[in-house]
Amino acid sequence: MWSTGPSTAASDCVMDSIRGRIHSCESFGTLDGPGIRFVIFLQGCPLRCRYCHNPDTWRSDGGKSVTSAELVKQIESCRNFLRNGGVTLSGGEPLMQPEFSTDLLRRCREAGFHTALDTAGSLPLEISQNTIDAADLLLLDIKALNPNLCRELTGQDNTNELATLEYCEHTGKEVWIRHVLLPGWTLRRDRLEQLAAYLKPFRCVRRVELLPFHKMGSFKWKELGLADPLANSPLPSQEELNAAETLFAAWNP
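The structure assignment produced for this chain is given below.
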């Protein structure tokens, strides 16, 4: 049970002992939530997305060990730049480190920062619920609406991510949907129409961000000795992107 009253020196010491593993930080992020963000990329991910541009975050034992208190101190040094933005936990998958992520989000909110959680919702709610509750905004990456397609793309079906969206609807948590447009896979009109129709009843969804597939992270696959499954895949055309955007115009006027 988390205390909601004033902390004592003893309890602060216990809280400070919560450690996690991070890959890196970005102090001037503009793509992961509203305004300028301090973005923390956490280590570890259960998915193996074909289009992942951060495969170096997959291993849970990679990166470096830090405490949530150390990170908040670093964030505080950037406060002037974050007045109209906030802090975003990304990855990797932040829900792989639920205690650390929850503590970090709560500390940031107590310090007056807007918080966002960038996640694929790939963990069961019994693991992720507290972390979701601790964030002001969820950036939810819907990999694919069809569970079989999702499994082909990521190695896991979409049961947990859709349950996460349902939970946010139930609790009134603000959600921005993110969806990668991969030619031949997700960048198909029929699949995009199905996704738009599925999202339409969700009042919690305030925005839909369509992310064009790119190859800027392909060098990491090579450095890690991994075969890039999409090395020969084409990039989406501007015409295809424009057509996709029109299907989700209701969320992005």
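Interim note for the steering committee: The chain is about 35% helix and 20% strand. Residues 98-110 form the longest helix (13 residues).
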